[in-house]
Amino acid sequence: MCVVCGCSGPLPAAAGGSPQAAVVDAGTGDLHFGAGAARVSVPGMSESRAIRIEQDVLGANNQVAQHNRAHFHAHGVRALNLVSSPGSGKTTLLCATIRALQQDHPEVALAVIEGDQQTSNDADRIRATGAPAIQVNTGKGCHLDAPMVAQAFARLALHDHAHGHGHHDYGRHPPQSLLFIENVGNLVCPALWDLGEDAKVVMLSVTEGEDKPLKYPDMFAAAQLMVLTKTDLLPHLQFDVQRCMDYARRVNPGIRILQLSASSGEGISAWIDWLLQASIPTASTPAYSVQARIAQLEAELARLKAGQG
Q: What is the pTM of this model?
């Protein structure tokens, strides 16, 4: 994962230890570098070192994420982390969603944080709807992190919209405000990074292939909702919707799935209903939390140390 690939910060000059060897499939000769405890191979770095670095980086990020989550809730804001590969239709859906909410639910304040490596193209599209947006360009970075989101949120008018209302009880009331965080297009690295969101929403277009949940399981395991987009194109494609949903539930049995088309409007009402419901599964649920991942890593590290001893 990107925690140890270098994009989240410079690695020590001497990482230490022997790199993980690939597991070789005897039948095909295929190489599997993610079969070990660290689930990644870094040149010159042992599995235990990779795990320790991931623990340190995710732990520091998670402290800011927890602050973000408390800050959002204190302002009556429900934050959603939208993740997908590039071209899945995130921004198109966001624009359609904003227009629908402006028309039917004008009482709900809206704002967007846009993550990309470069350009303000997506933020400009959001601003054209009348909703405020802050572009966050990550340079060579392949995901947003919690400190980036904290700085962006401070620049939004939404930051002051519900100030003074205190902690908002989503178990009884719909959100006063919605913050959409459109992450960098990437089905790998954003999976581990908690931004302080209430839920991760993974979007998969029907043009991408139904096997994506199996190819990128960490992302679909971390999401509370999968949105199948561009369903108006299904008559022109060989995409097995049921198989895709079965794959997603194989990875994450509790995931909810919606199908929609931002172009035709089909399924948008169910999406809006999900956004505004009083209670949704949250990213702070232990099964999806970074703390759970860190606990898993600690157990794997202890196993590695026991094996070395």
A: 0.81
